[in-house]
Amino acid sequence: MSLRSWLLPCSTAAKPSCNKSPEPSSSSFYLSSDGSSLSEMSANCSSSLTSTPSSDTSYSSLQTNLSLQSLPSIPSLQKLPTITDALNVSVSQHHLASFKLPISHLAVHGAYLYVATAHEINVYDRITFSHVTAFNARDSSSGSVKGISFLRREILTSHQDGKIRVWNLSEKTKQFKLVNTLPTVNDRLRRFILPSNYVNVRRHKKVLWIQHADAVTGLAVNGDSVYSVSWDRSLKVWQGSKHRCVESVKAAHEDAINTVAVSAGGTVYTGSADRKIRVWTKPETEKRHVLVATLEKHKSAVNALALNDDGSLLFSGACDRSVLVWEREDSANHMAVIGALRGHRNAILCLIYVWDLLLSGSADRTVRVWQRGADGSFNCLSVLEGHKKPVKSLVVVSEGESDGVVSVCSGSLDGELKSWKLSFSPNSNIMNCR
């Protein structure tokens, strides 16, 4: 495992295609510009890469080995790294667990870390990383877990079979109990008689508008509202307290929807294989969400979205290997692209934002750590290596505000769960960002 230069050359751009179907040990790492080969199928994209190994480990390579630009029409927000940047952060890696099946999703809530592999969810203590329990292990008919979210004390899981399952945790027994499956039986019975409650999902097939007709690929929660997106191209809104679907946008996109994010103010962002990000709001005078903007800059499927704390910045990752940064315009209720972050050699599959740090996981098997400066530019502080297949999910496990330490977990299609501890020096901008 090594820390690779953020200026590695990029290979051929990915071509998007929607695909439905122990004891911790730390290690140090060093700067290098070694190459590798990759031929992996990610969840939303398929691409291959071959590069030539190099033994150059000099710091000068960081400044001279410029990457091949993707989306060349969009300006870069990156600054060249300095020696000071490299000294301001140290990283340690810990191997936490290995699974026989790919890790599809990670989530943190309360005292627990949730790890989804196929249809099963394993639960770990987020401090000690000891295994607590597992649930949904026997229900293989649900298909693989696509997303995990939380509504107060309830755990929401979205599945390949087009359903959302609601769970409760018993603190005494540490066991999870299935409370409901959405849409609920009562909700179906209330609507199944009227023909107007059915929508066409494909030729000669109709379903109730309250149910997804394909895999539920993403969940987002804001207050009592739960937002779900699916490969069936729909966006649905659920009233969490009543476990009831209250709204559905049948054709929110022209192709499968891969990801959803919602701001504290209730603005909803959806990213799709149609290469677009759409922005939805619910005006006070309206009963339903309306489309207020369509953001079109990516050249391939959008796989991941992330928002900063106040919702003024949106980050999007796609199969075109770029992370785009969008900023809210004062004169409008939507975002405008301000630049791109480049360096990944393959599709971007996951994004998280914490403090002034953005972390991006990719099909190139690496995680990149970006620091946002006061001037709005970004430095790539480090490239985290160690996974053997695409990095599918990232989650912040803990934020040490006082000691400048951020702990992150990464899950990969290689079935490996890894923990990364990012430690920042006292004079780092990260220490002074809050």
Automatic annotation (TrEMBL):
Gene3D superfamilies for this protein: YVTN repeat-like/Quinoprotein amine dehydrogenase
Keyword Repeat listed: yes
Tagged with keyword tRNA processing: no
Pfam families noted in UniProt: WD40
Biased segments, Low complexity type: 17-40
PROSITE patterns according to UniProt: WD_REPEATS_2, WD_REPEATS_REGION
Superkingdom of the organism of origin: Eukaryota
WD repeat ranges, renumbered to this chain: 250-280, 295-336, 341-371
Region (Disordered): 12-40
Annotated SUPFAM superfamilies: WD40 repeat-like (SSF50978)
Keywords: Repeat, WD repeat
Name of the molecule in the record: Protein JINGUBANG-like
Source organism: Cucurbita moschata
